[in-house]
Amino acid sequence: MESDKVSASGLEELQAFQFDPSNPMYIQIKEYLRSRILEGSYSPNQKMPSESEMMDAFSVSRITIRQALNDLQSEGLVFKVHGKGTFVAGPRATQDLGQLQGFGIAMRQMGYETYSRLLSFQVMPLIG
Question: What percent of the chain clears pLDDT 90, i.e. is strictly above it?
Answer without folding.
Answer: 45
